[in-house]
């Protein structure tokens, strides 16, 4: 059921107005990862390669100091990147586990039983979706319907209406509730519901079906029209962490077995509608997150060793060629998002990075967003400073962390160097300063 009343739970809301300017880092996209050197916050086997001056002056390198980036006269005409934290909100809901964008609204799920709705660009709370179940692990919004996967292994559906005021009405639960005796006779407890927690969810808008991945090593296929499970795919030998689907109905699954598997739906086979097309290996590191470019030409996989591997789509259906790896994070990459020519990554190192994909296939780190005090669990991005704005020289990013804080960032590329924006302020030192 929905509720648009103000939540009596105390909260803190503060805004960050400090702007940061930094020079573009050189590309970290390589065919084979180069050897690592020393890095302040890295684990024993991981560190960052030679740090550029802008990264040395970043809050990640000196967490409690304020530094100034010096820019040479030769680089003043090169494109610069400015970024800042536009909004930061803390609710006493526990860890933020999921985030989704739709029609100028941001939906966030957490450890609690509340899905909060935020309005852009003000980033003010405008609604709540409540249930008895807790732990919202995944949220998807399609065709004015909100799909939310919970810790109890069920998916709950809300219908969104815009009649005079924004409203959400819950109208279904997947799987459907069946009497205990009947479910025992039909065996539905074993064939329909996941035997483990759901970890990821994707919607095939072309075929009108839902995919859910779980730690039980399976992917279930749900038909939206009658909310029935039509297939269970034994996809991997280890827990599945991420699932996404492309516009041409190709399914991608990522697992702790260090592989990404590509599946295609076969309408001629009724026993196994989805068949395995190819298995992609991620250098012996568990794959935690997946994302596709808008045209489906590049597939990205974030791994537990901090690397982001990417594959390029070939001429033939299902054909993927390894394109290289992106190096930057020092801990596991937990979430990925792609918009326009940007790739946004969130990591267990509490930082988020904005990467720009260049025409030659290389990737340049435009910004390192530091401010969270816990691993970044979910991320969403859109082009421009406002939702729906068509300005590919800037993007907005929403990050949700296990520290319970939701942040909105704005990143922009400027053509001329502004002398008033040459200082790099540490936002981490002002975190929780009310």
Could you provide a short overview of the structure?
Keywords: WD repeat. WD repeats lie at residues 191-232, 233-263, 280-311, 326-356. By secondary structure, the protein is mainly β.
Helix percent reads under 10%
Q: CATH superfamily name of the domain at 16-50 and 77-110 and 198-414?
A: YVTN repeat-like/Quinoprotein amine dehydrogenase
Radius of gyration: 22 Å
Give the DSSP E fraction (strand runs of 2 or more residues): over 45%
Which CATH class of the domain at 16-50 and 77-110 and 198-414? Mainly Beta
Q: Tell me the number of helical segments per DSSP (H or I, 4 or more residues long).
A: 3
Q: What class do helices, strands and sheet pairing give?
A: mainly beta
Reported by name, the CATH topology of the domain at 16-50 and 77-110 and 198-414 is: Methylamine Dehydrogenase, Chain H
Identify low-pLDDT runs.
Answer: 2-28, 31-75, 417-434
The best one-word shape is globular
Distance between the termini: 33 Å
Note the main sheet.
6 strands, antiparallel
């Amino acid at each position: 059921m929905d509720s648009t009343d103000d939540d009596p739970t105390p909260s803190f809301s503060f805004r960050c107005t400090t702007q940061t300017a930094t020079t573009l880092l050189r590309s970290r996209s390589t065919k084979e990862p180069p050897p690592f050197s020393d890095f302040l916050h890295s684990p024993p086997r991981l560190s960052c390669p030679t740090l550029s001056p802008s990264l040395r002056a970043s809050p990640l390198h000196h967490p409690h100091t304020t530094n100034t980036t010096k820019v040479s006269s030769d680089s003043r005409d090169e494109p610069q990147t400015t970024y800042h934290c536009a909004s930061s909100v803390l609710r006493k809901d526990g860890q933020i586990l999921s985030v989704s964008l739709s029609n100028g609204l941001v939906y966030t799920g957490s450890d609690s039983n509340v899905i909060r709705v935020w309005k852009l660009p003000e980033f003010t709370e405008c609604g709540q979706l409540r249930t008895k179940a807790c732990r919202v692990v995944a949220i998807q919004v399609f065709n004015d319907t909100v799909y939310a996967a919970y810790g109890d292994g069920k998916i709950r559906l809300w219908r969104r209406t815009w009649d005079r005021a924004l409203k959400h009405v819950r109208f279904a639960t997947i799987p459907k509730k069946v009497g205990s005796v009947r479910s025992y006779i039909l065996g539905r407890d074993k064939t329909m519901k996941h035997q483990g927690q759901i970890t990821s969810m994707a919607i095939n808008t072309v075929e009108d079906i839902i995919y859910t991945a779980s730690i039980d090593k399976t992917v279930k296929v749900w038909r939206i029209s009658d909310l029935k499970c039509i297939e269970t795919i034994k996809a991997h030998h280890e827990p599945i962490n991420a699932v996404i689907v492309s516009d041409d109905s190709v399914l991608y699954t990522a697992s702790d077995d260090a592989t990404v598997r590509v599946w295609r739906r076969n309408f001629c086979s009724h026993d196994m509608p989805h068949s395995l097309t190819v298995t992609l290996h991620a250098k012996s590191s568990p794959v935690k997150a997946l994302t596709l470019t808008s045209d489906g030409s590049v597939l990205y996989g974030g791994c537990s060793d901090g690397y982001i591997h990417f594959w390029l789509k070939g001429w033939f259906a299902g054909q993927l060629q390894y394109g290289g790896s992106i190096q930057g994070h020092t801990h596991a990459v937990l979430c990925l998002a792609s918009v326009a020519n940007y790739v946004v990554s969130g990591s267990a190192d509490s930082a988020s990075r904005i990467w720009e994909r260049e025409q030659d296939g290389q990737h340049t780190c435009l910004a390192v967003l530091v401010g969270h005090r816990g691993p970044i669990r979910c991320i969403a991005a859109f082009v421009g400073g406002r939702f729906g704005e068509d300005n590919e020289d800037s993007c907005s990013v929403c990050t949700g962390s296990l520290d319970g804080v939701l942040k909105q960032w704005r990143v922009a590329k400027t053509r001329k160097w502004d002398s008033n924006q040459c200082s790099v302020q540490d936002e981490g030192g002002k975190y929780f300063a009310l």
